[in-house]
Specification:
Length: about 270
């Protein structure tokens, strides 16, 4: 058995407070879905989406509010550092958990590129689709070409787009190589690239119980996280990366390096 899986199961079995957390969080999560979800859906209606709420549109406000509340209901304290750039931006982040999208949404309503499997996930997939997620069939060159075209269109329309250039979630212990091809979309749209560093844990350390265990399903991870101990959910908006039209690989490497530095991993 994988050591990460063994450690996760052991920590779950030895956590005497887990039943109490389920007792408190599950009803609140149900209430959030039953009462707040219709409001979020209403906000995505084109007739109501553009109603101003402070400096935001109604749909943007509701997406950020709904997502931030969801993250907190799982026991996370959101710690935001830096500010997301306004306007059309390509945000590039390390990928730790399915919660990454909700955590970033809590700071700004963003249209993400995500794996096509997410569309089939209960609740989260439906919401992601309604929020304008661009789905990518992993391993398909044709799918990636179509995705890049849609990203360019969204950026040129002034919308922010979120990318996970690692191509999938990892164990959270390191930031894997960033695929450089997707950075071409930002160059074609003449949009800035802002790296975003994500981490879940305490005292600046990534908690190994948050990422997917090997072979773990979305439903199993969802239920397990709902009972986990409270911890911080960090989102760091970093300095944008300078566009280098002759070297998208350089942009990918610089974005990854800034995220590594922000997380304090000390590796490149």
């Amino acid at each position: 058995m994988n050591s990460t899986t063994e450690r996760t199961r052991e920590s779950t079995r030895g956590d005497a407070m887990r039943p109490l957390r389920y007792l408190v969080r599950a009803p609140l999560l149900t209430l959030h879905v039953v009462l707040a979800l219709p409001l979020a859906v209403l906000a995505l209606n084109p007739l109501l989406a553009r109603i101003p709420v402070g400096k935001l549109r109604f749909d943007q406000f509701m997406i950020s509010w709904w997502s931030g509340t969801l993250v907190r209901l799982f026991g996370f304290r959101i710690r935001a550092h830096g500010k997301p750039l306004p306007g059309a931006v390509m945000y590039v982040a390390n990928h730790v958990s399915w919660l990454d999208i909700e955590l970033m949404h809590s700071q700004r309503a963003i249209q993400f590129v995500a794996k096509s499997e997410i569309a089939r996930w209960p609740l989260v997939g439906w919401l992601a689709t309604r929020a304008g997620t661009i789905y990518h069939q992993r391993g398909s060159t044709d799918s990636m070409s179509a995705v890049m075209g849609r990203v360019v269109e969204r950026l040129r329309e002034g919308m922010p787009v979120g990318i996970f250039p690692e191509g999938g979630t990892g164990a959270g212990k390191q930031v894997r190589t960033f695929h450089a091809r997707i950075f071409q979309a930002a160059l074609d749209a003449e949009a800035p690239v802002q790296p975003v560093a994500l981490r879940y844990g305490l005292d600046g350390m990534q908690d190994p119980d948050v990422p997917f265990s090997p072979g773990e399903s979305f439903a199993a991870n969802f239920i397990r996280l709902l009972g986990n101990r409270s911890m911080d959910a960090e989102v760091h908006f970093l300095e944008p990366v300078e566009a280098t039209p002759d070297a998208r690989r350089r942009m990918a490497e610089e974005s990854r390096a800034r995220i590594i530095d922000a997380l304090g991993y000390g590796e490149r």
